Amino acid sequence: MPIYQVIIKAIKDDIAAGTLRPGQALPTEAEMCTIHQASRLTVRRALEVLREEDVIYTVRAEGSYVGPRDAPQIREPWEFEKIASEFADRIKRGDLKPDEVLPSQSELIEQYGVAKKTARAAMALLRDQGWVYTVPTIGTFVASRDKWPTES
């Protein structure tokens, strides 16, 4: 049996066994290459067949998920989301006060051992959510309480 078909069978078996549930993220292509000792091209072929059969769907720049498309997505948070969540929790607890400066990008990189892109993404997410604001060339600060997102 060709390797791409072995991968397809393994994924379908995991879905049938409940190991992979609707909406759950599949391992990354790189992880599947390691798991199945296959090339990226082989893994992509398997994923393409699974997409054609509506077993999975792919969100560009995010990953592939078990179908159906309307199932709530289940995935581990990315590193930038974990960092942003940690800062949001610190702000909610009052550890960080409005207008208090947050660590610089280089401090975040050193503190969390992440790439510049990850540190930037964490701060961008906090800005988008309303927890912080940035003054160019000065720094990023905790937003005033009235700007914070409302808890649902």
TrEMBL record:
Pfam families: GntR (PF00392). One of its GO terms (molecular function) is DNA binding. Keywords: DNA-binding, Transcription, Transcription regulation. CDD domains: WHTH_GntR. InterPro entries: Bact_HTH_transcr_reg, Tscrpt_reg_HTH_GntR, WH-like_DNA-bd_sf, WH_DNA-bd_sf. The keyword Transcription applies. It comes from the Bacteria. One of its GO terms (biological process) is negative regulation of DNA-templated transcription. Residues 1-69, 77-145 form the HTH gntR-type domain. This is DNA-binding GntR family transcriptional regulator. The lineage of its organism: Bacteria, Bacillati, Actinomycetota, Actinomycetes, Streptosporangiales.
